[in-house]
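If it is no trouble, can you show me the amino acids of a protein and the tokens describing how it folds?
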Amino acid sequence: MGRLAGFRYRDIINILKTFGFEFYRQAAGSHEIWYNPETQRFTTIPNHSGDMPEGTLKAILKQADVDVEEFIKRK
């Protein structure tokens, strides 16, 4: 298990809110679009039960332009 293991949907959105992200709109199926008005960045987050796969979380953070270390610090 890597450093990004064990994060759930609720954990992720709570941390992204500290970076300035807010819910933007519902996307296809159980996916949501979140937006940061300060950085003008969008990210897509799947709203699934259980832990988020590490690769998926890494892609979310890349879209959001959020550093992995900063994300983990705000856990």
The two ends are 17 Å apart (CA to CA). The CA atoms of residues 15 and 74 lie 6 Å apart. The mean pLDDT is 96. Residues 54-64 form the longest helix (11 residues).
